[in-house]
């Protein structure tokens, strides 16, 4: 059983427990602000004090300059329109995790951020939206930070 299935099962059990006890699930605020554990291979530079949620998504933000160099390279490729090193770069991101703001199918697209030392695509991604928004995940969609231009908040 994969870790993702285990987490899904635990989430379903927690939801069922809340329903049975009559408790509210909360106010809809995101718990994705907790810092994920990282290995040395995937550790990004620690963001400065940029944890203010963005107005658009409610997610924590990270300045582009604070992203790992490989993520900045991926953003440059996206701006240039490619060419992309991975066949799945640019595919539709379905937002099954429902962490990003809900949009119609096809709004989001994902791109691989190379992870030094990984033989496969690794866990890091940039997800772009049709309105120009950009998100970064270094834990394969468990959490996201909205990427803001340098100097923006």
From TrEMBL:
Keywords: Hydrolase, Nuclease, Signal. Residues 29-57 have a biased composition (Low complexity). Residues 29-60 are annotated as: Disordered. It comes from the Bacteria. Residues 1-25 form the signal peptide. This is Ribonuclease domain-containing protein. Coiled coil: none annotated. It comes from Streptomyces omiyaensis. Gene3D superfamilies: Microbial ribonucleases.
């Amino acid at each position: 059983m994969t870790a993702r299935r285990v987490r899904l099962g635990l989430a379903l059990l927690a939801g069922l427990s809340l329903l049975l006890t009559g408790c509210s699930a909360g106010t809809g605020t995101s718990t994705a602000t907790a810092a994920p554990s990282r290995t040395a291979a995937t550790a990004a530079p620690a963001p400065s004090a940029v944890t203010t949620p963005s107005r658009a998504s409610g997610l924590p933000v990270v300045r582009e300059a604070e992203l790992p160099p490989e993520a900045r390279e991926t953003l440059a490729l996206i701006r240039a329109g490619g060419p992309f090193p991975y066949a799945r770069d640019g595919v539709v991101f379905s937002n099954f995790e429902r962490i990003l703001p809900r949009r119609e199918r096809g709004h989001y697209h994902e791109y691989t951020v190379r992870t030094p030392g990984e033989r496969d695509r690794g866990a890091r991604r940039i997800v772009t939206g049709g309105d120009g928004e950009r998100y970064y995940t270094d834990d394969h969609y468990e959490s996201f930070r909205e990427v803001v231009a340098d100097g923006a908040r």
